[in-house]
Predict the structure.
Amino acid sequence: MPTYSHSQLSTYETCPYQYKLAYIQKIKIETEGIEAFMGSRVHDALEKLYRDLKMTKLNTLEELLAFYYQAWEKNWTDAIQIVRKEYNPEDYQRLGEKCISEYYKRYYPFDQGKTLGLEETIYFPIEEERGYWIRGVIDRLTLLNGSVLEIHDYKTSGKLPTQADIESDRQLAFYQMGVEGKWKDIQEIRLIWHYLVFDVEIQSQRTSGELQRLRQETLELIKRIESDREFSPKESPLCDWCDYQSLCPKRRHRVVVESLPPNEYFQEEGVNLVNRYVELKEKKTILLGEIDAEIARVEEAILAYAEREELEAIYGSDHVAKIKNEIKEKYPLKGDPNRKALDEFIKNAGKWMEVSDLNPWMLVRVLERGGWPPSLAKKVKEFATVEKNRTIILSKLKERD
Ligand code: SF4
């Protein structure tokens, strides 16, 4: 039967292509980001802390950190990758140590409730009719005062969510759905996130109405996933941490060329093509700029020649350049301080509709047509400034009448 997890659904939301590789094609990737590796080691240490406590053994902080360092060494492989090149493995190791130490000091002697479960698997139907199930693993489940169930989750993320993010979090709400009804006399379920990097605890609760809405949204998301035929790659800043970059059409070329020695890199076909393309585009921009400047110079020369020789048409081999000399009235454009007064004036004259939204070119045409009473036209013309305008119109000789 179709089973989904929070991280599976999140993967689809982040990038459908990554989802396809991970959950449909089930491609296993050897590499692991150091952030995830550090998070797992911190989880291991906190699991040990509470597992030993169940056996009445309280580890000292030194013992716990010794366990953490041992687990780090034991699990470390060359497949662990560091995206942020400014940091080294020791930096991450120290950050993990800080997470454990601060947590230890904050909750010592860990007598806040009874531990019911560690790394507790949940599995429940989100919709029984169509047989959709959700699975997940709860970091720690605690019973407080015999009637309060606490769902604890450890996070080693470097980003602290807002309370609004927490209120709409899906993961722990799923966990609540998974544990509801499992124990008698539970009157309250608390969702508790430990953002260890910040030494911050955040709590939230979900009403049955909110859980019902989540159920609905989840089913809609599952429907979207199951009807997707494309699973298009969706680039985001998270791509840098994606384990599937070497298989992704948006990142594969980068992965390939980054591993090439310099001499092969500059011979690689794609690198060459893109470099050449950029070179040509840049050259085009430069050439267009040069050509525009040259055109402006020639225009000036044509106008100067026409003025000097008192010509209105200059003949080339295939074209004629006609010089159009005209005196144009110019009315204030939008933003001109006179524009508002002109608008008002025309409106009061009851002629606004004729020049709707006062198009200055339209105004010139209306006045040229002489459609307005002369006294009004005279008043409007007072808004105009006079500008000498010269343009060059090129046309093919054979197209002349
Ligand atoms: S690299 Fe980015 S776009 Fe490609 S699969 Fe991974 S997350 Fe998706």
In short: Residues 15, 17-18, 233-235, 238-239, 242, 244-245, 248, 250-251 surround iron/sulfur cluster (CB under 6 Å). The chain has two domains: 3-237, 313-399.
